[in-house]
Amino acid sequence: SYIERQNLTMRMSLRRYTRLTNAFSKKIENHVHALSLFYMYYNFARPNQVLNGRTPAIAAGFADRIWTLEEIAKLTNFN
Fold first, then answer.
1. Alpha-carbon distance 1 to 29, whole Å?
2. Helical axes 28-44 vs 2-13, angle rounded to 10°
3. Residue 50, Cβ neighbours under 10 Å: how many?
4. Furthest-apart CA atoms within the chain: distance in Å
5. Are the C-beta atoms of 57 and 63 separated by less than 8 Å?
6. pLDDT string in tens for the chain (79-residue length)
7. What is the pLDDT of residue 35?
8. DSSP the chain
9. Under a CB-based contact definition with an 8 Å cutoff, are residues 72 and 37 in contact?
């Protein structure tokens, strides 16, 4: 049930997986990048109400603060 909930969250958050359009790139590299950005945002930048406003990364001890989108964007090598 945890995996099914995670799949639903991903499908609802990433428009490319809702099957309402075929206007997305079909290259596997682009799918990998989209998933990577989503999970980075979900785990490091998006506060979770169940975790008392902390992110999953903070709750697990992987981070000590909520990351900004600018910090996540700086991690990419698309310069």
1. 28
2. 110
3. 8
4. 39
5. yes
6. 788 888 788 877 776 666 655 656 678 887 888 888 888 999 999 998 888 899 999 999 999 999 999 999 888 766 5
7. 84
8. -HHHHHHHHHHHH-GGGSSS---S---HHHHHHHHHHHHHHHHHTS-BTTTTTB-HHHHHTS-SSPPPHHHHHHTS---
9. yes
**25 CB-contact burial (10 Å; exposed 0-12 / middle 13-18 / buried 19+):** exposed
User: Is the pTM higher than 0.85?
Assistant: no
Distant-in-sequence, close-in-space partners of 34: CB < 8 Å, separation ≥ 6: 14, 16
Contacts of 41 (CB under 8 A, 6+ apart): 69, 72
